[in-house]
Amino acid sequence: MLTKRAFLYGCVGCACGLGSGVLLARDGVDVSREASVFANLVSAAEVEQSAHKQYADMMREAASKNALGPDNHPQVIRLRRIAKDIIPQSFDWNPRAKEWKWEVNLVGSNQINAFCMPGGKIAFYSGILTQLQLTDDEVAMVMGHEIAHALREHARERMGKAAATNGVATLGSTVASVFFGVSPQITDLVAKQGANLLNLKFSRDDETEADLVGVEIAARAGYDPRAGVTLWQKMSAANKGAPPQWLSTHPSGNTRIEEIQANLPKVMPLYERSKSLTR
Predict the structure, then answer these.
(1) What's the whole-model pTM score?
(2) pLDDT value at residue 22
């Protein structure tokens, strides 16, 4: 069965019966729906299983150091409330997300950071909340961005590219395996990299895509997408010593702000529609 988004993105025959098709418009950001060939080199289930184990290990370590926020901590309650709003908006971007065992936790650390591992394992470091004094809307932009990385399976794609690069000699000329099967060497790569999911570096395109998808799902959940601009203004101010854009895999703060601003006309109606439904 086609989802609404898949239907909208499908080509339909024109009314006059010609062989050509038209692409129906959709509301929201313009992001390619094509799955990466590289992502298909590794099993989504295995990546998510590795992420689950690593996340559980990290949370146990945090708890052993009294750095894991308790369920009744105000910031934990806040993060989980925002996640509860955003998560249902994610399902249309990745059908697997409906089956994920979502978790949201707070780790006591001065780091200005947050992440969402494959399979919906979310963590915020307390530093990003306290040092940047984030509003709920800004928290939603961070959370949406991190969730978008998981929805778009950027980690899986990075691992697939690593497999393709490191496994050329073992794969040899069996090009068909890229499309129709998974090499045992690739399965081994998942096992070896499973403990290093957080060290995978996303590309600039990945980051831009996560910004836009994140802003959209947060807007659909009723969070003001204009907070994406104030968020990156705060992030830029906090990273004054960061290298110039061309030396980093991450787009510069100004570039991200410009991209978000350019897409505000596409996501503001989603936000306004959501707010009108809750009034």
Answers:
(1) 0.76
(2) 35
